[in-house]
C-alpha cells in the first residue's frame, strides 16, 4: 500500500493550442510523426515512469480527437485522462488542469510535472532525473540546458515598419543563461497559487510555470536537460524530430 505520508506525482500536459507556427492543417500535437501522432510519443515517455500516478491532458473545449483515435500499446488508457478545460493561454490551461486534479482528490503537497505536448523527444530517463532532483527540494525545478550560442539584443525599433531589417544593439553575456525546457516540477498548491496570482496581475510575464513560481520570490532548481528535448515549433523541426524518433526505434529493435 502507498505510504500516506508520500505525495503523489502527477503530470499535466496542456493540449489546447493550435500550433499555428508549425504550419500544419491540424493541431501540431496530433500531427503524425514517425508513424503516429506526436502526442503519443510524448505520452509514452510518461507512461513508462512508474513514479507518476497519472497524466492529465488539458484539451480545448470540443476537442474530440481522443474519441476518434485509439492509444498505442505503450500508452495504456489507465495511465492518462483528459479534461476539456483548456484556456486561451498556456497558463490558463495549466491552471485549469490543476483545478481538475484538485477536484479529483489531488492534494496541495502533491507534485505536478507540467510538460509541453510538442516536446515529443522527452525520455523516461530525463523525467526521472528531474523527479529525483526535485523530490526533496523545497521549491521544485525544471529541466534546462546552458545557453550554447552567443546571445544578441536587438536595437529598439521605435515604431519602424516591419520590413526594416533588425540590427544588433549589444551582445548579452551568456555565462549564467539557461534555456528552459519541460517538464517543470512543483507542488500543486504552490503552483496553483502562483498561476492564479500571475494571471491576475501580470499574465504577459507568465511564459512558463517557473516564471510564475519566481514571482512568489522562490528560486526553482535548474536540472540539466538535453538538447534533444527541443520543442517542435516550426516545419523543419518535424523533420529533425522524426529522424531522432526513427533512429531510437531502430536502435530498440536491434537491441
TrEMBL record:
Cite the Pfam families for this sequence. Answer: IspD
Write out the GO biological process terms.
Answer: isopentenyl diphosphate biosynthetic process, methylerythritol 4-phosphate pathway
- In chain numbering, the residues marked as site (Transition state stabilizer) are 21, 28
Q: What is its EC number?
A: 2.7.7.60
Pathway(s) = Isoprenoid biosynthesis; isopentenyl diphosphate biosynthesis via DXP pathway; isopentenyl diphosphate from 1-deoxy-D-xylulose 5-phosphate: step 2/6
What's an example of a GO molecular-function annotation for this chain? 2-C-methyl-D-erythritol 4-phosphate cytidylyltransferase activity
Q: Which organism is this protein's natural source?
A: Brachymonas denitrificans DSM 15123
Per its UniProt record, what Gene3D superfamilies does this chain match? Spore Coat Polysaccharide Biosynthesis Protein SpsA, Chain A
The protein's matches in InterPro entries, at most eight in alphabetical order, are given as:
IspD, IspD/TarI, IspD/TarI_cytidylyltransf_bact, ISPD_synthase_CS, Nucleotide-diphossugar_trans
Instruction: State the NCBIfam families in the record.
Output: ispD
Q: Does the UniProt entry include the keyword Cell inner membrane? A: no
What's the catalysed reaction? 2-C-methyl-D-erythritol 4-phosphate + CTP + H(+) = 4-CDP-2-C-methyl-D-erythritol + diphosphate
Q: Site (Positions MEP for the nucleophilic attack): give the residues.
A: 174, 231
Q: What is this protein called?
A: 2-C-methyl-D-erythritol 4-phosphate cytidylyltransferase
- Lineage of the species this protein comes from: Bacteria, Pseudomonadati, Pseudomonadota, Betaproteobacteria, Burkholderiales
Q: CDD domains, from UniProt? A: CDP-ME_synthetase (cd02516)
Q: Which gene encodes it?
A: ispD
Family (UniProt): Belongs to the IspD/TarI cytidylyltransferase family. IspD subfamily.
**Physiological role:** Catalyzes the formation of 4-diphosphocytidyl-2-C-methyl-D-erythritol from CTP and 2-C-methyl-D-erythritol 4-phosphate (MEP).
Give UniProt keywords alphabetically: Isoprene biosynthesis, Nucleotidyltransferase, Transferase
Q: Does the keyword Protease apply?
A: no
